[in-house]
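Lab notebook: predicted structure, single chain.

Context: the supervisor wants predicted structures on file for every construct in the current expression panel, including those that have not yet been purified. This is the next one on the list. No modifications to the sequence; it matches the entry in the shared construct table.
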Amino acid sequence: MAKTILFLQGPSSPYLKYVADSLQSNGWTVHKLHFCMGDAVLWWPKPGDWFKRPMAEWPAFLRQYILDRGVTDMAMLGDGRTRHAEAVKVAQALGTRIHVFEHGYLRPDWLMIETRSSSEETPRPSAALNVKSLAEKAKPDQSWTRPVFTQSFLVSSLYDLAFHVPNVLLGRLVHPHYRTHGPVHPFVEYAGWVKKGLFRKSRRRDAQHMQARYRDEAPDYFLFALQLFGDYQIRNHAPAGSLYKIVDGVIRSFAKYAPSRCRLLFKTHPLDNGLYNWSRNIAAEAGKYGVEDRIDVIDGGDLDTLIEKSLGVATVNSTVGVTALLAHKPVLALGRAIYDQEGLTHQPSMRDFWTAPQGPEPGLPEAFAEKLIELTHFRGGFIGRPAMEAGGRNMAARIETNAMKTSHDDFTGTPSFRYEDELFNPPDQPDCSDPA
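Prediction complete. Output recorded below exactly as produced.
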């Protein structure tokens, strides 16, 4: 049976070429659609086709493209981008298999892929990933936690420039209808990185002092792992789709219910571009609730150390949640997250998290991680030739065997936000924090 795959957009690197090479060596026919110059630059010298029309014409164009070329499979980086979200609908209507890949929940050096089809008889991974159904909870071999590949921020930056600069310089001529999926113009983001680079030494020094303070003074503290402004996990799978509103709600809850001896430490994402001044704005929010002397922001530091010393970790749906669970720390997941399940994360109310955080059952985080690897994860990376080569081979193998028959929505946890009312509509209840 003919196997024909269509690639849409991938990461800002040549990663997709390695996947294509592996599939082609196994007899697949590979097509690639470019939406912008950056797509073509990272796919070069392989041939590709173009979509340059207005977005309103995209579904009809894609449908005809799939039919004309006999496309059986389609792969894309995430399904949050508008073009990808529409492509999923078209593919499902035609019965085309969809492979959505992205960074894995396990770090480092893990990617994940989820395959779905239009068949309602496809097994649902929510059953396979129900942690209570995992019979073996004994701590397994954790060789998968050891890093395999090296990552270079410089190489990543150069690939990002190779993608965005041609779009900015030639975009109006080549693809006037294309709009970037990012929340800000690329050059605005680069300005943020330049500013961060100018103050790199002082930021690192401040982070070291902050971490030393939390290590040496050993306060009781909770850690909040911040995510990126444009993260689709925030846009699509967080209460109100706004990290800023969530931070405000968390600070309000902490101020009202956390024991007065406790502190709250916010850690910025390592790829945060610095355009939003988290330190200043979190300090302002803390001041509104009278806890400015109990809340800090750290831009840097060692994540594992900060998790280890904390009382628990709060996050929306970051992969840091899995890291904390594997460190056997209580985790409060405020958005839809695959790991937000009874036996793993804190399940009572958010107010209870500050006074009696509920940790994972022994052995369950490890068994959960092993199940993730079995169903969706594979070794590889988007940056660096060894990582891309391994990732290309492993992803092609996953596609080849169609090992995961699942839906992306099945991997987003509960259908509702359990803490939405506490975040945005707090009940008028007395302060339950201790008087000390």
